[in-house]
Protein backbone atom coordinates (compact mmCIF):
# COMPACT_ATOMS: atom_id res chain seq x y z
CA UNK A 1 0.00 0.00 0.00
CA UNK A 2 2.86 2.33 0.86
CA UNK A 3 4.48 1.32 -2.39
CA UNK A 4 1.35 2.46 -4.22
CA UNK A 5 1.50 5.86 -2.61
CA UNK A 6 5.11 6.40 -3.65
CA UNK A 7 4.23 5.44 -7.22
CA UNK A 8 1.29 7.79 -7.51
CA UNK A 9 3.15 10.74 -5.97
CA UNK A 10 6.10 10.04 -8.28
CA UNK A 11 3.90 9.95 -11.37
CA UNK A 12 2.36 13.28 -10.37
CA UNK A 13 5.84 14.57 -9.63
CA UNK A 14 7.02 13.59 -13.11
CA UNK A 15 4.22 15.67 -14.66
CA UNK A 16 5.08 18.60 -12.40
CA UNK A 17 8.80 18.59 -13.14
CA UNK A 18 8.39 18.04 -16.89
CA UNK A 19 5.81 20.85 -17.05
CA UNK A 20 8.28 23.23 -15.40
CA UNK A 21 11.05 22.09 -17.75
CA UNK A 22 8.90 22.50 -20.84
CA UNK A 23 8.25 26.11 -19.81
CA UNK A 24 11.97 26.61 -19.28
CA UNK A 25 12.62 25.35 -22.81
CA UNK A 26 10.00 27.40 -24.55
CA UNK A 27 6.39 26.52 -23.76
CA UNK A 28 4.18 29.43 -22.62
CA UNK A 29 4.35 30.23 -18.90
CA UNK A 30 2.16 27.98 -16.74
CA UNK A 31 1.47 25.94 -19.85
CA UNK A 32 4.21 23.37 -19.67
CA UNK A 33 1.42 20.85 -20.08
CA UNK A 34 -2.19 21.79 -20.70
CA UNK A 35 -4.27 19.17 -22.40
CA UNK A 36 -7.17 21.46 -23.30
CA UNK A 37 -4.86 24.23 -24.58
CA UNK A 38 -2.82 21.75 -26.60
CA UNK A 39 -5.85 20.18 -28.28
CA UNK A 40 -7.01 23.74 -28.97
CA UNK A 41 -3.62 24.54 -30.54
CA UNK A 42 -3.83 21.36 -32.60
CA UNK A 43 -7.35 22.26 -33.77
CA UNK A 44 -5.87 25.64 -34.77
CA UNK A 45 -2.87 24.07 -36.49
CA UNK A 46 -5.25 21.97 -38.57
CA UNK A 47 -7.12 25.13 -39.48
CA UNK A 48 -10.32 24.13 -37.70
CA UNK A 49 -10.25 27.58 -36.11
CA UNK A 50 -8.41 30.68 -37.29
CA UNK A 51 -7.28 32.29 -34.04
CA UNK A 52 -3.80 33.11 -35.32
CA UNK A 53 -2.11 33.14 -31.90
CA UNK A 54 -3.02 29.58 -30.86
CA UNK A 55 -2.10 27.34 -33.78
CA UNK A 56 0.52 24.63 -33.37
CA UNK A 57 0.57 20.85 -33.60
CA UNK A 58 1.77 20.33 -30.02
CA UNK A 59 3.85 17.14 -29.98
CA UNK A 60 3.13 16.54 -26.28
CA UNK A 61 -0.35 15.25 -27.19
CA UNK A 62 0.79 12.58 -29.67
CA UNK A 63 3.37 11.79 -26.96
CA UNK A 64 0.68 11.10 -24.34
CA UNK A 65 -1.26 8.93 -26.75
CA UNK A 66 1.68 6.96 -28.12
CA UNK A 67 3.28 6.62 -24.68
CA UNK A 68 0.08 5.10 -23.37
CA UNK A 69 -0.29 3.00 -26.53
CA UNK A 70 3.24 1.62 -26.24
CA UNK A 71 2.92 0.82 -22.56
CA UNK A 72 -0.50 -0.79 -23.01
CA UNK A 73 0.86 -2.89 -25.89
CA UNK A 74 3.92 -3.94 -23.89
CA UNK A 75 1.79 -4.99 -20.93
CA UNK A 76 -0.90 -6.68 -23.02
CA UNK A 77 -3.50 -4.14 -21.93
CA UNK A 78 -4.33 -2.65 -25.31
CA UNK A 79 -8.00 -3.47 -25.87
CA UNK A 80 -10.34 -2.07 -28.47
CA UNK A 81 -13.52 -1.16 -26.68
CA UNK A 82 -16.34 1.32 -27.01
CA UNK A 83 -20.03 1.82 -27.63
CA UNK A 84 -20.78 3.59 -24.37
CA UNK A 85 -22.92 6.54 -25.52
CA UNK A 86 -20.42 7.96 -28.00
CA UNK A 87 -22.65 10.88 -29.03
CA UNK A 88 -23.22 12.02 -25.46
CA UNK A 89 -19.50 11.75 -24.83
CA UNK A 90 -18.82 13.93 -27.86
CA UNK A 91 -21.18 16.59 -26.50
CA UNK A 92 -19.77 16.36 -22.96
CA UNK A 93 -16.25 16.66 -24.37
CA UNK A 94 -17.34 19.66 -26.43
CA UNK A 95 -18.63 21.57 -23.41
CA UNK A 96 -15.81 20.43 -21.15
CA UNK A 97 -13.55 22.25 -23.60
CA UNK A 98 -15.77 25.35 -23.66
CA UNK A 99 -15.64 25.52 -19.84
CA UNK A 100 -11.88 24.99 -19.82
CA UNK A 101 -11.27 27.70 -22.43
CA UNK A 102 -13.37 30.21 -20.49
CA UNK A 103 -11.20 29.48 -17.46
CA UNK A 104 -8.13 29.30 -19.74
CA UNK A 105 -6.81 25.86 -19.02
CA UNK A 106 -7.70 22.25 -18.39
CA UNK A 107 -7.77 20.96 -14.79
CA UNK A 108 -4.11 20.00 -15.08
CA UNK A 109 -3.13 23.53 -16.08
CA UNK A 110 -5.24 24.72 -13.16
CA UNK A 111 -2.90 22.84 -10.80
CA UNK A 112 0.16 24.11 -12.67
CA UNK A 113 -1.11 27.69 -12.50
CA UNK A 114 -1.69 27.29 -8.80
CA UNK A 115 1.85 25.96 -8.43
CA UNK A 116 3.18 29.19 -9.94
CA UNK A 117 1.23 31.45 -7.61
CA UNK A 118 -1.79 32.20 -9.82
CA UNK A 119 -4.59 32.51 -7.27
CA UNK A 120 -7.23 32.72 -10.00
CA UNK A 121 -6.64 29.00 -10.34
CA UNK A 122 -7.81 28.61 -6.75
CA UNK A 123 -11.17 30.06 -7.79
CA UNK A 124 -11.12 27.63 -10.71
CA UNK A 125 -10.37 24.77 -8.33
CA UNK A 126 -13.39 25.67 -6.18
CA UNK A 127 -15.49 25.64 -9.35
CA UNK A 128 -14.02 22.31 -10.44
CA UNK A 129 -14.73 20.73 -7.05
CA UNK A 130 -18.28 22.12 -7.11
CA UNK A 131 -18.77 20.69 -10.61
CA UNK A 132 -17.45 17.31 -9.52
CA UNK A 133 -19.81 17.36 -6.53
CA UNK A 134 -22.75 17.99 -8.86
CA UNK A 135 -21.57 15.21 -11.17
CA UNK A 136 -21.36 12.84 -8.20
CA UNK A 137 -24.99 13.52 -7.33
CA UNK A 138 -25.89 12.18 -10.78
CA UNK A 139 -23.67 9.12 -10.26
CA UNK A 140 -25.38 8.44 -6.94
CA UNK A 141 -28.78 8.60 -8.60
CA UNK A 142 -27.67 6.00 -11.10
CA UNK A 143 -26.16 8.00 -13.96
CA UNK A 144 -24.19 5.87 -16.38
CA UNK A 145 -23.19 6.19 -20.01
CA UNK A 146 -23.49 2.43 -20.25
CA UNK A 147 -20.85 -0.23 -20.32
CA UNK A 148 -18.43 -0.42 -23.18
CA UNK A 149 -18.09 -3.55 -25.25
CA UNK A 150 -15.31 -5.10 -27.25
CA UNK A 151 -14.80 -3.52 -30.67
CA UNK A 152 -12.97 -4.60 -33.79
CA UNK A 153 -9.26 -4.16 -33.12
CA UNK A 154 -8.93 -1.71 -35.99
CA UNK A 155 -11.09 0.92 -34.28
CA UNK A 156 -8.82 0.98 -31.23
CA UNK A 157 -5.93 2.07 -33.43
CA UNK A 158 -7.72 5.27 -34.44
CA UNK A 159 -6.12 7.59 -31.91
CA UNK A 160 -2.58 6.18 -32.14
CA UNK A 161 -2.92 6.60 -35.92
CA UNK A 162 -4.12 10.19 -35.54
CA UNK A 163 -1.17 10.84 -33.23
CA UNK A 164 1.31 9.59 -35.81
CA UNK A 165 -0.41 11.60 -38.54
CA UNK A 166 -0.10 14.73 -36.39
CA UNK A 167 3.61 14.12 -35.89
CA UNK A 168 4.15 13.64 -39.62
CA UNK A 169 2.26 16.86 -40.36
CA UNK A 170 4.31 18.66 -37.70
CA UNK A 171 7.63 17.50 -39.12
CA UNK A 172 6.78 17.97 -42.80
CA UNK A 173 4.89 21.22 -42.17
CA UNK A 174 2.85 21.29 -45.39
CA UNK A 175 1.39 24.65 -46.44
CA UNK A 176 -2.12 23.84 -45.19
CA UNK A 177 -0.97 23.49 -41.57
CA UNK A 178 -1.01 26.70 -39.53
CA UNK A 179 1.82 27.68 -37.21
CA UNK A 180 1.37 30.76 -35.02
CA UNK A 181 3.95 33.46 -35.58
CA UNK A 182 3.15 35.25 -32.33
CA UNK A 183 1.30 34.57 -29.09
CA UNK A 184 1.17 31.33 -27.07
CA UNK A 185 1.02 29.17 -30.20
CA UNK A 186 4.44 30.43 -31.26
CA UNK A 187 6.02 29.52 -27.93
CA UNK A 188 7.11 25.92 -27.85
CA UNK A 189 9.78 23.67 -26.44
CA UNK A 190 11.88 21.81 -29.05
CA UNK A 191 9.91 19.01 -30.71
CA UNK A 192 12.15 16.20 -29.43
CA UNK A 193 11.88 17.41 -25.84
CA UNK A 194 8.13 17.98 -26.01
CA UNK A 195 7.52 14.60 -27.63
CA UNK A 196 9.82 12.86 -25.16
CA UNK A 197 8.08 14.44 -22.19
CA UNK A 198 4.71 13.46 -23.65
CA UNK A 199 5.81 9.86 -24.20
CA UNK A 200 7.11 9.59 -20.64
CA UNK A 201 3.94 11.03 -19.13
CA UNK A 202 1.74 8.86 -21.36
CA UNK A 203 3.59 5.67 -20.43
CA UNK A 204 3.64 6.40 -16.71
CA UNK A 205 0.01 7.49 -16.54
CA UNK A 206 -1.09 4.35 -18.37
CA UNK A 207 0.39 2.49 -15.40
CA UNK A 208 -0.77 4.72 -12.57
CA UNK A 209 -4.10 5.98 -14.03
CA UNK A 210 -3.78 9.42 -12.46
CA UNK A 211 -6.75 11.65 -13.26
CA UNK A 212 -7.63 15.08 -11.90
CA UNK A 213 -11.37 14.44 -11.94
CA UNK A 214 -11.08 10.88 -10.64
CA UNK A 215 -8.86 12.03 -7.76
CA UNK A 216 -11.31 14.60 -6.47
CA UNK A 217 -14.31 12.37 -7.23
CA UNK A 218 -12.93 9.49 -5.16
CA UNK A 219 -12.36 11.74 -2.13
CA UNK A 220 -15.98 12.83 -2.12
CA UNK A 221 -17.62 9.65 -3.32
CA UNK A 222 -15.75 6.86 -1.57
CA UNK A 223 -13.37 8.71 0.80
CA UNK A 224 -10.38 7.29 -1.00
CA UNK A 225 -7.26 9.45 -1.19
CA UNK A 226 -5.07 7.39 -3.51
CA UNK A 227 -5.24 9.66 -6.57
CA UNK A 228 -5.25 12.81 -4.45
CA UNK A 229 -1.63 12.00 -3.61
CA UNK A 230 -0.85 12.12 -7.32
CA UNK A 231 -2.44 15.56 -7.60
CA UNK A 232 -0.42 16.73 -4.61
CA UNK A 233 2.66 15.32 -6.34
CA UNK A 234 1.92 17.42 -9.45
CA UNK A 235 1.47 20.53 -7.33
CA UNK A 236 4.56 20.16 -5.16
CA UNK A 237 6.93 19.16 -7.93
CA UNK A 238 5.60 21.82 -10.31
CA UNK A 239 6.10 24.35 -7.51
CA UNK A 240 9.67 23.18 -6.88
CA UNK A 241 10.34 22.97 -10.62
CA UNK A 242 9.09 26.51 -11.15
CA UNK A 243 11.14 27.85 -8.25
CA UNK A 244 14.26 26.21 -9.63
CA UNK A 245 13.84 26.62 -13.39
CA UNK A 246 11.41 29.51 -13.86
CA UNK A 247 11.92 31.62 -10.78
CA UNK A 248 11.50 34.90 -12.70
CA UNK A 249 7.90 33.93 -13.59
CA UNK A 250 6.84 32.97 -10.06
CA UNK A 251 4.36 35.46 -8.66
CA UNK A 252 1.65 35.04 -6.04
CA UNK A 253 -1.55 36.98 -6.66
CA UNK A 254 -4.58 37.52 -8.86
CA UNK A 255 -3.31 40.34 -11.06
CA UNK A 256 -1.18 40.13 -14.17
CA UNK A 257 -0.91 36.33 -14.26
CA UNK A 258 0.20 34.85 -17.58
CA UNK A 259 -2.57 33.67 -19.92
CA UNK A 260 -5.21 34.12 -17.21
CA UNK A 261 -7.94 36.58 -16.28
CA UNK A 262 -9.43 37.46 -12.90
CA UNK A 263 -13.11 37.33 -13.72
CA UNK A 264 -13.85 35.18 -10.63
CA UNK A 265 -17.43 34.23 -11.37
CA UNK A 266 -16.56 32.92 -14.83
CA UNK A 267 -13.39 31.20 -13.66
CA UNK A 268 -15.61 29.40 -11.17
CA UNK A 269 -18.43 28.58 -13.58
CA UNK A 270 -16.09 27.60 -16.41
CA UNK A 271 -14.38 25.01 -14.26
CA UNK A 272 -17.68 23.91 -12.71
CA UNK A 273 -18.85 23.09 -16.24
CA UNK A 274 -15.60 21.22 -16.88
CA UNK A 275 -15.99 19.37 -13.56
CA UNK A 276 -19.52 18.13 -14.22
CA UNK A 277 -18.61 17.03 -17.74
CA UNK A 278 -15.43 15.29 -16.55
CA UNK A 279 -17.26 13.28 -13.89
CA UNK A 280 -20.03 12.25 -16.26
CA UNK A 281 -17.34 11.23 -18.76
CA UNK A 282 -15.36 9.40 -16.07
CA UNK A 283 -12.13 11.31 -16.63
CA UNK A 284 -10.45 14.64 -17.32
CA UNK A 285 -8.94 15.46 -20.75
CA UNK A 286 -5.54 14.07 -19.72
CA UNK A 287 -7.09 10.77 -18.71
CA UNK A 288 -9.12 10.64 -21.94
CA UNK A 289 -5.89 10.95 -23.94
CA UNK A 290 -4.36 8.02 -22.06
CA UNK A 291 -7.49 5.88 -22.50
CA UNK A 292 -7.64 6.72 -26.21
CA UNK A 293 -4.06 5.45 -26.50
CA UNK A 294 -4.95 2.08 -24.99
CA UNK A 295 -7.81 1.42 -27.39
CA UNK A 296 -10.78 3.10 -25.71
CA UNK A 297 -12.80 4.40 -28.66
CA UNK A 298 -15.22 6.21 -26.33
CA UNK A 299 -12.29 8.31 -25.14
CA UNK A 300 -11.34 8.86 -28.78
CA UNK A 301 -14.81 10.22 -29.52
CA UNK A 302 -14.53 12.41 -26.41
CA UNK A 303 -11.29 13.85 -27.77
CA UNK A 304 -12.94 14.64 -31.10
CA UNK A 305 -15.58 16.41 -29.01
CA UNK A 306 -12.86 18.36 -27.20
CA UNK A 307 -11.32 19.42 -30.51
CA UNK A 308 -14.68 20.41 -31.99
CA UNK A 309 -15.38 22.37 -28.81
CA UNK A 310 -12.04 24.15 -29.15
CA UNK A 311 -12.68 25.00 -32.79
CA UNK A 312 -16.11 26.46 -32.03
CA UNK A 313 -14.81 28.23 -28.94
CA UNK A 314 -12.41 30.27 -31.06
CA UNK A 315 -14.60 30.61 -34.16
CA UNK A 316 -17.49 31.95 -32.07
CA UNK A 317 -15.33 34.01 -29.73
CA UNK A 318 -16.27 31.96 -26.67
CA UNK A 319 -12.76 31.46 -25.33
CA UNK A 320 -11.58 33.93 -22.73
CA UNK A 321 -8.47 36.05 -23.13
CA UNK A 322 -6.24 37.77 -20.56
CA UNK A 323 -8.66 40.73 -20.90
CA UNK A 324 -11.47 38.61 -19.49
CA UNK A 325 -14.53 36.68 -20.62
CA UNK A 326 -16.65 38.08 -23.42
CA UNK A 327 -20.43 37.96 -23.60
CA UNK A 328 -20.31 35.02 -26.02
CA UNK A 329 -18.23 33.00 -23.59
CA UNK A 330 -20.62 33.68 -20.73
CA UNK A 331 -23.64 32.66 -22.80
CA UNK A 332 -21.80 29.52 -23.92
CA UNK A 333 -21.01 28.50 -20.34
CA UNK A 334 -24.64 28.93 -19.32
CA UNK A 335 -25.80 26.94 -22.36
CA UNK A 336 -23.15 24.35 -21.57
CA UNK A 337 -24.34 23.99 -17.98
CA UNK A 338 -27.95 23.59 -19.14
CA UNK A 339 -26.99 20.98 -21.75
CA UNK A 340 -24.69 19.00 -19.48
CA UNK A 341 -27.28 18.94 -16.70
CA UNK A 342 -29.95 17.96 -19.23
CA UNK A 343 -27.80 15.04 -20.32
CA UNK A 344 -27.51 14.05 -16.67
CA UNK A 345 -31.26 14.20 -16.09
CA UNK A 346 -32.06 12.62 -19.44
CA UNK A 347 -29.88 9.61 -18.76
CA UNK A 348 -31.27 9.24 -15.22
CA UNK A 349 -34.82 9.33 -16.56
CA UNK A 350 -34.05 6.69 -19.18
CA UNK A 351 -32.34 4.45 -16.62
CA UNK A 352 -35.33 4.76 -14.31
CA UNK A 353 -37.73 3.83 -17.13
CA UNK A 354 -35.70 0.78 -18.10
CA UNK A 355 -35.76 -0.36 -14.51
CA UNK A 356 -39.50 0.22 -14.17
CA UNK A 357 -40.25 -1.75 -17.35
CA UNK A 358 -37.95 -4.59 -16.44
CA UNK A 359 -39.41 -4.81 -12.96
CA UNK A 360 -35.88 -4.43 -11.70
CA UNK A 361 -34.65 -1.86 -9.27
CA UNK A 362 -36.22 -2.64 -5.93
CA UNK A 363 -32.76 -1.90 -4.70
CA UNK A 364 -32.63 1.81 -5.53
CA UNK B 1 -3.03 -11.27 9.46
CA UNK B 2 -4.63 -12.24 6.18
CA UNK B 3 -2.57 -11.21 3.23
CA UNK B 4 -5.25 -11.26 0.60
CA UNK B 5 -8.67 -9.77 -0.02
CA UNK B 6 -11.34 -9.97 -2.67
CA UNK B 7 -12.83 -7.29 -4.89
CA UNK B 8 -15.90 -7.05 -7.06
CA UNK B 9 -15.53 -4.94 -10.18
CA UNK B 10 -18.45 -3.34 -11.99
CA UNK B 11 -19.39 -1.99 -15.39
CA UNK B 12 -20.79 1.18 -13.86
CA UNK B 13 -20.14 3.21 -10.74
CA UNK B 14 -23.80 3.07 -9.87
CA UNK B 15 -23.70 -0.68 -9.23
CA UNK B 16 -20.66 -0.23 -7.02
CA UNK B 17 -22.57 2.28 -4.90
CA UNK B 18 -25.58 -0.01 -4.78
CA UNK B 19 -23.48 -2.93 -3.66
CA UNK B 20 -22.05 -0.93 -0.80
CA UNK B 21 -25.54 0.11 0.28
CA UNK B 22 -27.03 -3.39 0.13
CA UNK B 23 -24.09 -5.05 1.89
CA UNK B 24 -23.84 -2.43 4.61
CA UNK B 25 -27.52 -2.85 5.38
CA UNK B 26 -26.77 -6.52 6.04
CA UNK B 27 -23.62 -5.82 8.01
CA UNK B 28 -21.36 -7.45 5.48
CA UNK B 29 -18.00 -5.66 5.75
CA UNK B 30 -17.41 -3.85 2.46
CA UNK B 31 -15.33 -0.90 1.38
CA UNK B 32 -15.29 0.93 -1.93
CA UNK B 33 -11.89 1.55 -3.45
CA UNK B 34 -10.32 2.40 -6.82
CA UNK B 35 -10.10 -0.72 -8.98
CA UNK B 36 -6.76 -2.37 -8.06
CA UNK B 37 -4.14 -1.84 -10.76
CA UNK B 38 -3.44 -5.57 -11.01
CA UNK B 39 -7.01 -6.14 -12.13
CA UNK B 40 -7.51 -3.47 -14.76
CA UNK B 41 -6.14 -0.36 -16.41
CA UNK B 42 -9.52 1.33 -15.98
CA UNK B 43 -10.06 3.85 -13.23
CA UNK B 44 -13.44 2.83 -11.89
CA UNK B 45 -14.61 1.85 -8.44
CA UNK B 46 -14.45 -1.64 -6.95
CA UNK B 47 -15.86 -3.10 -3.73
CA UNK B 48 -13.40 -4.73 -1.36
CA UNK B 49 -14.65 -7.52 0.93
CA UNK B 50 -13.29 -10.52 2.86
CA UNK B 51 -13.07 -13.51 0.53
CA UNK B 52 -15.00 -15.79 2.86
CA UNK B 53 -18.11 -13.65 2.28
CA UNK B 54 -17.94 -14.31 -1.44
CA UNK B 55 -20.82 -16.79 -1.77
CA UNK B 56 -23.09 -14.67 0.36
CA UNK B 57 -22.27 -11.53 -1.60
CA UNK B 58 -22.79 -13.15 -4.98
CA UNK B 59 -26.21 -14.34 -3.82
CA UNK B 60 -27.11 -10.85 -2.64
CA UNK B 61 -25.99 -9.37 -5.96
CA UNK B 62 -28.29 -11.77 -7.75
CA UNK B 63 -31.18 -11.04 -5.45
CA UNK B 64 -30.77 -7.27 -5.86
CA UNK B 65 -30.07 -7.42 -9.60
CA UNK B 66 -26.62 -5.92 -9.22
CA UNK B 67 -24.62 -6.55 -12.36
CA UNK B 68 -20.96 -6.96 -11.64
CA UNK B 69 -18.07 -7.52 -13.96
CA UNK B 70 -15.88 -9.98 -12.09
CA UNK B 71 -14.56 -11.15 -8.73
CA UNK B 72 -10.83 -11.02 -8.10
CA UNK B 73 -8.64 -12.16 -5.27
CA UNK B 74 -5.84 -9.72 -4.57
CA UNK B 75 -2.58 -10.47 -2.85
CA UNK B 76 -1.79 -7.60 -0.49
CA UNK B 77 1.93 -7.70 -1.01
CA UNK B 78 2.19 -6.66 -4.64
CA UNK B 79 5.59 -8.29 -4.94
CA UNK B 80 3.97 -11.71 -4.75
CA UNK B 81 1.92 -11.20 -7.85
CA UNK B 82 2.39 -14.78 -8.95
CA UNK B 83 -0.20 -15.80 -6.36
CA UNK B 84 -2.92 -13.65 -7.87
CA UNK B 85 -2.00 -14.92 -11.28
CA UNK B 86 -2.16 -18.53 -10.11
CA UNK B 87 -5.64 -18.04 -8.75
CA UNK B 88 -6.96 -16.36 -11.84
CA UNK B 89 -5.45 -19.15 -13.95
CA UNK B 90 -7.28 -21.79 -11.95
CA UNK B 91 -10.65 -20.11 -12.27
TrEMBL record, chain A:
The keyword Transmembrane applies. This is Uncharacterized protein. Keywords: Membrane, Transmembrane, Transmembrane helix. It holds the Pfam family Sulf_transp. The chain crosses the membrane at residues 87-112, 118-136, 157-179, 185-205, 226-245, 265-286, 298-319, 331-348. The keyword 4Fe-4S does not apply.
UniProtKB/TrEMBL annotation, chain B:
This is Putative Se/S carrier protein-like domain-containing protein. It comes from Anaerovirgula multivorans. Pfam families: Se_S_carrier. Residues 5-72 form the Putative Se/S carrier protein-like domain. InterPro entries: Se/S_carrier-like.
